[in-house]
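Rotation project, supervised by the postdoc (A.L.). Task for the rotation student: set up a whole-complex structure prediction and record inputs and outputs verbatim in this book. Inputs entered:
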Amino acid sequence: MADEPAMPDRDGGLVRIRIDFAYDGTDFSGWAKQPGRRTVQGVLTDVLALHGPGGRPPVKLVVAGRTDTGVHAVNQVAHLEVVEFPDDADDLDRLVGRWNRMLPPDIRVFAARRVPVAFDARFSALRRHYAYRVTDHPFGALPLQRRDTLGWFRPLDDGLLNAASALLVGEHDFVAFCRRREGATTIRELQRLDWTRLPDGVLVARVSADAFCHSMVRSLIGALLAVGEGRQPIEWPASLLRATTRPGTVTVAPPHGLTLLGVDYPPDDELASRAERTRNLRQLQVDD
Amino acid sequence: MADEPAMPDRDGGLVRIRIDFAYDGTDFSGWAKQPGRRTVQGVLTDVLALHGPGGRPPVKLVVAGRTDTGVHAVNQVAHLEVVEFPDDADDLDRLVGRWNRMLPPDIRVFAARRVPVAFDARFSALRRHYAYRVTDHPFGALPLQRRDTLGWFRPLDDGLLNAASALLVGEHDFVAFCRRREGATTIRELQRLDWTRLPDGVLVARVSADAFCHSMVRSLIGALLAVGEGRQPIEWPASLLRATTRPGTVTVAPPHGLTLLGVDYPPDDELASRAERTRNLRQLQVDD
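Outputs recorded:
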């Protein structure tokens, strides 16, 4: 091969591929393949199996952020393993083009490329970035925005939302905002949480963390909306960080306002150590 | 009545109402009511008839811009005539709220208010503003943008698009860009036509005119895209203004990239003279 990568890229004859893609989650029952349901993993696997690199189905498909039913992604990342993969950039473009012609318009693949075998879309990720969109317009979301914007029928105060959000940033045990799973840690580092009101009046929360446990972003948003409408004091969401179980008072915000914006990875030479560290920390049982 | 308007607002016992509303045109067969088709006028009329002000169906529903199948609106304007209408702001809010609860989520009414009888949503309009969205990303529109953004599979040059657009601005006979109707003028004043590339790569054309003949915006966009991809010279769209019939070489761009942004009206005391002038100029046969 002309361009031997610095890291090994074959593992028992398999080549590891990273794909970057986007979807409108409205008509999917989330990421994970389920019998009888239309899921992102299911639709992608079907197309890759029929039109895979080298004409063979991929061995597995692991995603960075396993989104729930109705949640969207503008830049999701997955890895898969295949027997063969084009080395030539033109062949690669043709392959991605073929996938997009076969995929329904609510999924688009932007890029596919060979990565070191140490690249794990889920466990190598350094951090995930999400956005949550909500409008407090009295008559709800604009028709063209209704698929990814929650309508909130009471006025929301940007200042209250931001003040309560700032108190949540940092490394905490987010058990109050996590759906409990046995044996899994709920300690996460929340790196960013703030709100911006766009010129059209839509409020956008930007949320970044090393990782999120299940329903964590939507639970945080649910608690913050109670503050934004004046129903709870600014300190209330942060006070829940002292809880040792999930309180019944936190409402999980609806999924359709949530969009995965992107995922960050370390340089290639740190992939293996990052994945090792994440696996140990989170004991393989935790969500993204 | 406490707030007698300066202009008469009753005409044979009827009160004239202006409504401002938005829709996602994807699942509508355009504006105009047609048997057996789901249209914006049809859905609105059904809801207003059942839940009209004063419990009676409106007499008519006249729109500023009669959009085609698949075309969207973020601020469309219509007028209707009713026997009764709430004078109290709270009652009015309740009425609009009731409409929105009955309307499907792809139509939202923002406001309804009594206007002088001289207000004609179509003929009093001073100008209409449209946007056309197109992406030249090799794999088409992002899933969440695919309803209002055209995918163009060849690269588009912003400079060429803007240079060709500038030559079209002004008062011209746009017969080359109009679907012909007998006895109707095709002279229009194109007041704005320019392109901006957004940070996400989507190109947005802003198009404003006193009025547009049928399929005019989409024909202009179709001609300009041929310039933007380098298939026609910069001067070509403007050279068609010298044509006396519609040439076969102009392609009408697909409807789903087109959105009506808004409609301007003169002050109340100029409504009647504006409508009179428009009716005379356009002989009642012309599109918006």
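Student's summary: The two ends of chain A are 35 Å apart (CA to CA).
Supervisor addendum: The first strand of chain A starts at residue 10 and ends at 11.
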